[in-house]
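>> Question from a student workshop board

For tomorrow's exercise we were told to take the sequence and the ligand below, predict the bound structure, and bring the output to class. My setup keeps failing. Could a helper post the expected result so I can at least see what it should look like? The ligand is flavin-adenine dinucleotide.
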Amino acid sequence: MKRIVVLGAGYAGMRMVKRLAAAKVDAQIVLVNKNPYHYQSTELHEVAAGTKEPADITFDVAQVFAKKKNVRVVIDEVTKVDQDAKKVELKNSDSLSYDYLVNALGFESETFGIKGARENGWPLIDVDTALAARKHLEDTLKRYKTSHDANDLRIVVCGAGFTSIEYLGELVYRLPDLAKEYGFPLDQVKIDCIEASPKILPMFNQNLADWGVKFLEGKGVTFHVSTPITEVKPDAVMSNDTAFPAGTIIWTTGVQGSHIIADSGYDQKRNRVVVEDDLRVKGQPDQFLVGDVSAVPNPDNGRLYPTTAQISIAQADCAADNLVALINGGTTKKFVFKSLGTVCSLGPKTGIASIDMMGHWNLKGWLAAVAKKMIADRSALELADIRTMLESD
Ligand code: FAD
Ligand code: NAD
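>> Workshop helper replied:
Here is what the output should look like for this input. Compare the format with yours to find the bug.
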């Protein structure tokens, strides 16, 4: 019997294993993940701001696949893929050999080598980092009551991409409650968002983007565009000679793929590998790369698709079908992506959305928030087994 090893229980890995298990392929499926739980990384900004708890965005991986006899879950950290020996090296147990490999190890924070970013910025890349960012924010705001240091009330969010904007939305929603709880003056909190490019939310039309920016400005956020961050100090973010003082620095300037990609000798850029059009790795016909570690050119414009949960799930479906076809002696198909659109939340109750389902819809306000919640809930149900979700209630 063949052994398929799937690395990472994120959106791509979970979906892959669900689909392979359902296909009843004659193979043993081994899913390796460093934590016993899957986390909905699309909701990490909520944990970081404190509008959600880790339990709201995680579920137990082994429990999801408990009834699937052909699935084995291994909780361990992958340290390297030995592509020549077809083995995966693990931190705490013996290496795992594979006949087929699906690498779905996901994303990490990108610092672009900026001095002090790693040491002084709080990234939002998994549950632990989101909780650490939240603890730092809360401790710093709480301290103001005794320190009266204005810097304790200054927050800088680095970059104005989706993660930054969604985090800002949750932050401004939660701040009034934190002010009551910790006794700091809400009107003295200063929030700066610093973006290198001249435009914010360029993927939305101007009207929607302006609405989103104005909403956050109305809640006290100051945007600084065309302002590249050049250094991050313990108490300030620098753009050349201009300093933005801060007691809390959120580092959300973008992502790269898992460092295991470079460590394992893949031909990569920022730990992402441009895959063949059936999602296999060039020169490695037994290996698929899906999710944020992969890079797929959009045939319409030649640019790489952005790294999103939506595309990760679509890739997993295609790669699972291709893997089943290979095992059954069939041929693989090309990956084709049709975007359902984009939603950017601005806190739990509002947002902006550009949806491509049954026509094209530009939404703002609560309708966009409802769209986002529906997508998140559907994704949780599709990744977990619905019975497992009900049992754990
Ligand atoms: P991941 O979700 O990163 O999963 C990787 C898995 O591998 C994790 O379980 C991790 O623990 C595990 N792992 C990592 N390294 C190892 C190792 N060495 N050994 C073992 N296990 C390991 N996209 C959207 O489409 N819509 C959204 O609304 C959206 N919102 C987002 C909000 C935020 C705050 C962020 C940060 C991202 C958002 N994204 C969104 C992007 C989306 O989260 C990613 O594109 C998606 O998570 C990629 O899925 P993945 O399965 O490739 O990787
Ligand atoms: P991103 O790359 O989309 O945004 C990072 C931002 O930081 C960019 O605007 C960039 O110009 C800016 N930046 C980079 N270096 C800088 C510097 N030195 N100084 C100032 N600004 C700098 O990254 P992200 O927001 O972390 O998102 C990661 C991925 O996840 C993206 O593909 C995104 O589409 C996806 N995502 C999607 C959603 C959603 O669909 N609602 C939400 C969050 C993330």
